[in-house]
Here is the input.
Amino acid sequence: MERFTLQSFRKPRERIEIASGRRQRYLVVVNPVSRGGKALREGTWLLKNLRKLEVWHEAFFTENPGHAENIVKHWIERVDVVVAVGGDGTVNEVVNGMLSVPDCSRPLAVFPAGTADDFCHNVGIPRNDREKALEILLTDRSRRIDLIKCNNRYAVVQMGIGVDAEIAYKTLSHKSIRLAAYWAVGVRLVFIDRLRNSPKALRIRGESGEFDGKFLIAVFGNSPLYARYVWWMPEAKMDDGLLNMSALRPMSPLPAWFLLFKCFNRDFRSDKILYDVSPWYNVELLEETFLQIDGEVYRYDAGETLSISVVPNALSVRMPDRPGPDQHWPFIEPPP
Here is the structure.
């Protein structure tokens, strides 16, 4: 096994060991506008260190929505590993490009550079430690995870119907202050506008039964953390072959505030939240509705139907071999 050593630029006293099973070829896809443009700096740092380590790589900077997916489709057969540098939306595009290639067995590596980085936060890839994220990227430690399929699109972490997608839609024009804008718009929608107006009417069918009526939000996913800090689906596992659903019906502002802040606690459960588990869901949209898939926003008309299912063991992802201190382990099998 070859060994490489990376001299840390930010912390000169530290030396980080990088192990690689072989000289692998990396396709690096950077979304330069992610995290308000900060992803450009992260991507530049990564490419500089890949060159320093003499790691073979081909790099592209995306120029518009859908570009990452097309890059992956074109290049994946020529590389061993695909790297996404950006947020959850970038990861989503890259993964949809990978899954469009039949029998694709290449692993995905992620260098976090997004607003929320939900995927990285769930699996323990640090976004405040570049050297550690690079170490994870260049090792052969991989784990297979389930994916979510919604009609003809794949989701890596979660998809949401209702107010979360509407918030994402209304903050698209605030890329430089995306997180602050998300919270500001969210507070207004959840606690003022949406509680006074009618939430979205849905008919949700799963293996365990049918749920219909008005919903403020309905989230389907395979990971426990949502919006980086919220334990919206605390029981979810990324490799159990099941989808978790958490849905919330309309409620008055004061209990809504209380519920939101309680969800920052991993052990919190509430009878106000509808929890369900199923390998599939069919959702009938009874009125015009926004949908977000890993943060990418879509609008659907009344009467359209979403077919949502789990795709077990669909993707190999490079990640830490064990959770960090106080980190939740979102997998069935314990760490080695």
